[in-house]
UniProtKB/TrEMBL annotation, chains A, B:
<dbReference type="Pfam" id="PF02775">
    <property type="entry name" value="TPP_enzyme_C"/>
</dbReference>
<dbReference type="InterPro" id="IPR011896">
    <property type="entry name" value="OFOB"/>
</dbReference>
<keyword id="KW-0560">Oxidoreductase</keyword>
<dbReference type="GO" id="GO:0030976">
    <property type="term" value="F:thiamine pyrophosphate binding"/>
</dbReference>
<dbReference type="InterPro" id="IPR051457">
    <property type="entry name" value="2-oxoacid:Fd_oxidoreductase"/>
</dbReference>
<dbReference type="GO" id="GO:0044281">
    <property type="term" value="P:small molecule metabolic process"/>
</dbReference>
<feature type="domain" description="Thiamine pyrophosphate enzyme TPP-binding">
    <location>
        <begin position="59"/>
        <end position="207"/>
    </location>
</feature>
<dbReference type="InterPro" id="IPR011766">
    <property type="entry name" value="TPP_enzyme_TPP-bd"/>
</dbReference>
<protein>
    <submittedName>
        <fullName>2-oxoglutarate ferredoxin oxidoreductase subunit beta</fullName>
    </submittedName>
</protein>
UniProtKB/TrEMBL annotation, chains C, D:
<dbReference type="InterPro" id="IPR022367">
    <property type="entry name" value="2-oxoacid/accept_OxRdtase_asu"/>
</dbReference>
<dbReference type="Pfam" id="PF01558">
    <property type="entry name" value="POR"/>
</dbReference>
<dbReference type="InterPro" id="IPR009014">
    <property type="entry name" value="Transketo_C/PFOR_II"/>
</dbReference>
<dbReference type="GO" id="GO:0016903">
    <property type="term" value="F:oxidoreductase activity, acting on the aldehyde or oxo group of donors"/>
</dbReference>
<dbReference type="InterPro" id="IPR002880">
    <property type="entry name" value="Pyrv_Fd/Flavodoxin_OxRdtase_N"/>
</dbReference>
<dbReference type="InterPro" id="IPR019752">
    <property type="entry name" value="Pyrv/ketoisovalerate_OxRed_cat"/>
</dbReference>
<keyword id="KW-0560">Oxidoreductase</keyword>
<dbReference type="InterPro" id="IPR002869">
    <property type="entry name" value="Pyrv_flavodox_OxRed_cen"/>
</dbReference>
<feature type="region of interest" description="Disordered">
    <location>
        <begin position="413"/>
        <end position="445"/>
    </location>
</feature>
Amino acid sequence: MSAIDADTAAPVLKASDYKSDVKPVWCPGCGDFSVLSAITKALAELGIPPHEAVVASGIGCSSRIPAYTTVYGFHSVHGRALPVASGIKLARPELTVLAAGGDGDGFSIGGNHFIHACRRNVDMTYIVMDNAVYGMTKGQASPTTEPDWTASKLTPDGPGISAFQPLEMALSAGAQFIARGFTANPNTLAHLICQAIRHPGFSLVQVLSPCITYRPEQRAYKNRVHQHFGHPEPATDRREAFARLMDDDGFSLGVLYKGSQPVYQPAPAPSATPEEVAAQFAIC
Amino acid sequence: MSAIDADTAAPVLKASDYKSDVKPVWCPGCGDFSVLSAITKALAELGIPPHEAVVASGIGCSSRIPAYTTVYGFHSVHGRALPVASGIKLARPELTVLAAGGDGDGFSIGGNHFIHACRRNVDMTYIVMDNAVYGMTKGQASPTTEPDWTASKLTPDGPGISAFQPLEMALSAGAQFIARGFTANPNTLAHLICQAIRHPGFSLVQVLSPCITYRPEQRAYKNRVHQHFGHPEPATDRREAFARLMDDDGFSLGVLYKGSQPVYQPAPAPSATPEEVAAQFAIC
Amino acid sequence: MSNPSVSIALTGSGGAGVMTAGQMLLTAAARAGCYGLMSRSLGPQIRGGESAALLRLSTAPVDGPDDIFDLLLAFDWGNIDRFAAELPLNENSVVIYDPGQGPVPEVVREPGPRLVQVPLKEIAKGIPGGRENMVGLGLITTLIGLDAASLRQVIEERLGRKGAEAVDTSWQAVEAGAEAATVDGLPRLDQASPAAPGSRWQISGNDAVGLGALRGGVRFVAAYPITPATEILEWMAVNLPKVGGALVQCEDELASVCMALGGSYAGVPSMTATAGPGLALMTEAIGLGVASETPVVIANVMRGGPSTGIPTKSEQSDLNIACYGLHGDAPHIVTAPTSIADCVFTAQWTVYLAEALQCPAILLSDQAMGQAQAVIEKPAEVAFIGRRKVARPADLENYQRYRITADGISPVALPGMPGGQHTADGLEHAPSGTPSTQAAHHQEQLDKRRRKLDRFDYGDHWAIRAGDPEAELALITFGSLTGAARDAVTRCAEAGLPVRLIAPRLLLPVQVERLEAALAGATKLLIVEQNHEAQLRHLLAGHIRLPAVVDSLNRAGPLTIRPGEIVSALTTLAA
Amino acid sequence: MSNPSVSIALTGSGGAGVMTAGQMLLTAAARAGCYGLMSRSLGPQIRGGESAALLRLSTAPVDGPDDIFDLLLAFDWGNIDRFAAELPLNENSVVIYDPGQGPVPEVVREPGPRLVQVPLKEIAKGIPGGRENMVGLGLITTLIGLDAASLRQVIEERLGRKGAEAVDTSWQAVEAGAEAATVDGLPRLDQASPAAPGSRWQISGNDAVGLGALRGGVRFVAAYPITPATEILEWMAVNLPKVGGALVQCEDELASVCMALGGSYAGVPSMTATAGPGLALMTEAIGLGVASETPVVIANVMRGGPSTGIPTKSEQSDLNIACYGLHGDAPHIVTAPTSIADCVFTAQWTVYLAEALQCPAILLSDQAMGQAQAVIEKPAEVAFIGRRKVARPADLENYQRYRITADGISPVALPGMPGGQHTADGLEHAPSGTPSTQAAHHQEQLDKRRRKLDRFDYGDHWAIRAGDPEAELALITFGSLTGAARDAVTRCAEAGLPVRLIAPRLLLPVQVERLEAALAGATKLLIVEQNHEAQLRHLLAGHIRLPAVVDSLNRAGPLTIRPGEIVSALTTLAA
Ligand SMILES: Cc1ncc(C[n+]2csc(CCOP(=O)(O)OP(=O)(O)O)c2C)c(N)n1
Ligand SMILES: Cc1ncc(C[n+]2csc(CCOP(=O)(O)OP(=O)(O)O)c2C)c(N)n1
Ligand code: SF4
Ligand code: SF4
Ligand SMILES: [Mg+2]
Ligand SMILES: [Mg+2]
């Protein structure tokens, strides 16, 4: 991550330098606008030149985010933001890599990649814009939807199964930086994202990002969120982190856990030419 | 589960009634033989007639198990044992449904179905024969393989990522019966499987099942296993279960956790004919 | 005689209420005894953004769009450039627009339509609580001569629960619009006599697929939402429980198709619905259905591809993956309904085929059909008999799940049947189901799985045919283009050019003999399809002897292929 | 002149050491200056169980199997019924067996081979520590006239580290076997002169694909194991790091193909390898590669299908899914190496094509090629230039990722290049990359993605051609059957029947003009392929004008199609 070395004499970058002029397809008032702001602020604060950052995403309202930034982007297929982002980072470790998308993308169809990315611990940051709904397909239940939410025709009696707990899953799966943010204040969120990017290894930031169209009641999130998971400092011990999660109401904000498992990054030192390698097949 | 009503006057069934005459492809000494025995013993003990039970599996050495029983079986595709089993149970709630397979099948390619099956809580029992290796494809690392296991050419320096914790993941994902068994004693294992089948909702039994061909060192499991997760009785509270898991060395045997979330089983009561339903389209 | 109809486009963004107006217009027309079709064109925004309701109304049944719009009513011009190509106009078209919304954009002006200003917003403002879309409705119904009473009835039904005042306000707006209807020369609907109550339906293609599947016996659905297939699933989620069935929302398409296979293995006819990206994820498990001989229906509603493509727009480009997308030698069934009305029949037939043949069946619908509403004759109730061949007691003695039979179909034991226990397997197997790597077992199972599809009698349902069966000029198309093709054939006939039309409902197995017989004597063939690579043409050329001269009229979405284009292509080919 | 060679099958179960003996025999033959091929047939058991080493040795290069086995050496008869069909014998064949292992089974006896008893086990017992497979080796090398010194050398290399005693014991067993070699009339290898050191290679098809990809520039591999492709991945895991590359084991194939796309997007040529079931899971993301124009190579090693099928046996039945398995209109590249030696070239070329065309490329190998070892001429080092067209400074001014260009190829900016920022997208897009639902954008991007494949000059590499290019009789095949086809053409020529052979290395885009030119003047065509549905035939018929008379010789796996069968089919067709 040479790009964020403090002593690089790069021109000072502003958040607006990271915002493209593509008009978002989002509904006016969608929480994702704040996430976009926060990401741009974070990149500016870290001083990462736009061409040295990449955002990979899946499919969904939230997954449209790459094109709204001025960094490199890969808007991939539904559920695959994390493998795409991992490939980018593993192939080009010097890049700053973010993955971004929705709760459906990340926890439903992308659930397997989510748990294995937590384990694999590639140095990247995953921002999930969690609105507890499939916005893009017009309002079905996602894994984080409450079991008794009956507003979707697909599950007219409610999904009927208990909601997916992103932070708990991430902790069990082995993630090393786990945080929750909210869209009300892009500056606070930007700060959280900065920490996540700075943390070596895989970082998860679950952002409560209201869908004002299909979950208008989420406007009330702002009354429910509160600081900390019971303690101002992140836990650095998994046992403690689990304990704090047991008391979490889903609206605690901040960093839950910071671990220090080694980052996964194969770093081969080339020592041979392909023809030297091929010599193994020679009959002598 | 009418089939296991105690007062059904069915002929007495023996474990051998559940063993087919198809010769397993397994290596002599493979742990999976014990799992097969244990399943047949459990079904006999529960008195479930062979035609009222179904075992669905994925692909792998362990996933070959259905054909070695005399119950109905579906040997499906790699990683999909759980959705297949869920479909069977949801369509025919009166059947006793088991899903079975390996750690690769269940936690690698099938990881997403695993976590969502834990949440969905369909009444079935999932038996994972965990040998911390891909046996069928000749010995690659699986999610439960230790990071420093260097015996596979695919990961000659070891997989390098921390092992998947099946019980912790199941607990986070919302499973309601979570246990670990071992192959040394098929009777003990059968007893565990009986409890799992009896428990309403989704039950996970992780069975430490040595692969004597690609992980011959697992013969030493027998020296490492021990009773209980620190307490003879299962936890019934998630907080307590997490606490016990924090002290688990991966070789505690028995039932970790029993919860009581409602079982997922849509039970529609037919009230209309298709033509009555069609009347909604009529222009009148 | 070619179809006398009126085609109307309503455009506007966000709050203009274009879709509501379109819906009400269609229903009012239906009430008045007309047939009709309404499709929608939407912008990429999730909510709001530009939208267009595209209608064709007629006193005769309509299966597809006309060449041009007789009337374009523009509430505003928001982003019109993005979709103007979907709204063909000519010098006979009338464009009514609100002068308060700025000048008529060049793309609209260019084909030379008559331009008429009506201050819709202003008129609406004149009525407290009045809305411009109601003004528009009044304007249109008057212009095309639609019975006002029908519209009144629709308004009462829609707004009745908001109270009499709401109805009155709307009706005032309608009347104000009617007064502004001073344009002349627009086609008017013939006087239709209202149909007998219940004899006609208003239904979307997606709902129709759901209903057909339900009629066909589907009682278990595993679902993952995707545009433009979600409505099939939503309709079934609401309606299946009424008949004792259930729908489960899954974590992804890998799960949904596998759950459906599980439900089906358990003996309950099962299905899922998806679109291209989801179908791609399902092909491995569909192959499992082939090998394990487990019936399952996959309704695939096609949209613009490749990859995520254009999710909201129609295209017929999933033919390749539907027919050839499974690995290994994996014969299966692919069907395509030929109209919204036919969605009911084809879905029911597809379930029947899957069950009878113990084989996965992919039904190919598309966005143009799936998300459009049509007013149609009530589809006949068809009774397909011969469901899944379930093992009888004699079969259960030394039961062999994959017994080699003359027709390739082996009796299947369902869980719960004593003595029928077996393991359904995706590994190649001996007749017993036991896995086998032997060449002879592989060969006999491959033969059997193909034979059951080849020997089955699909009857007349394999295709829709129209026009002159002896004509030298043949036309083949499929799916939602069948309506336009039918119109084209009628027009050609009126112009003295006989054409035979064949629209296969059964795309796979390719009906080699039937197609060749249907083409016998034809010297020229036009193949019409809505994709870039001429997928149907290559599929047919790969399997059957085609006439000496073959031409393609193919174009990717979203622009549909209209009857006039087909007429031109046929005329050119005939020359 | 047709290939004078000796074909040997070694069979036995579990501990017989059949594979070791086969490997040593091949290497010894190579040392002695021979060429050779060894494939394996394995039972379904994970370890132990029946196995057969199938060799063909010759002083001329060998690309495929012969019609029959000259010699079958059976250490035992375990489960021989299961795979006897893979071991064709006739009355000229010699079967040497251990009388202690029971009578010769009927399936072996039936074709009438000479039966010779040699008490292999007993002989081995006579030497303390002696093993029967070494006795067998001594027997065979003597019978076929292979230089004993080469075998000695191989034994020393293999067992040297176990000490001189181990070598001696083995050698005694070899000599004991040689003494028992009293059968006559077996074909003997011509005296070969050892090749210059390093001028020949011993390599498997899977390793060869790995090496070719590495030569082609692949430096990032994302892997999920599957039979029979795993060895490609294992070879790369070990060898990639040596040249600065890396392999990552993924959670599934959805992840592996997407990680490879990520690596490639980042600028590093990337690949994965899989077999049918994995390929099926990858098609959605391969479509993303098409739409986003991200190169990626997928090596697919075919095995028996459908579904899990017969994982350990060869078949060529993934042609359909490889060519047509993506949803939407998704033109891409499909290649097939024509021999083990050609795996190196074709893999390298495939990487080159994917990179040059910014497009996914599927390389179709198969189990027969992938898991077989061959002794071959060292493959030439080929230098393909013209890699990915990376944006130059001029391109980066108002950079448009998907700029419309004459050749359809748009310069790509890689992360790290200032000014090149864009979002690669699977949604249809304007040239800038911004998503678009407009018909015109869709059309121009579809045109461009097809155009880049059509306009590219594939040169002479598109196919292997042999025989008489003017012959009236043409033969088309692909992949691992090319060797047998080549043998057949040589034999036909010797018998006075000229045949032209075309084995396309480039299967997609179908080379319409080139194929038609190569077939010009041919009146009859035989298409040979190892699958049940004649997939290649339908692919070709769907795209090109074929000669008036077309016949198929196709059969599913595991039985390969042998030269003699092709000769018969050609002869019948010619008559
Ligand atoms: C393979 C596949 N399946 C389904 C879809 C349809 N689809 C698009 S976005 C989406 C869900 C999006 O939900 P989420 O990730 O929560 O994003 P949001 O729109 O709420 O931001 C679905 C199901 C798809 N594009 N691809
Ligand atoms: C889609 C797909 N990918 C890969 C494979 C190859 N494969 C078969 S079994 C297996 C792993 C089995 O490991 P596990 O589930 O742990 O079972 P075990 O053999 O160890 O009992 C793999 C990767 C496959 N059959 N299908
Ligand atoms: S539908 Fe919801 S998530 Fe999507 S853009 Fe609108 S508010 Fe945001
Ligand atoms: S390879 Fe391992 S898991 Fe597979 S059968 Fe042999 S011992 Fe069992
Ligand atoms: Mg969401
Ligand atoms: Mg395993």
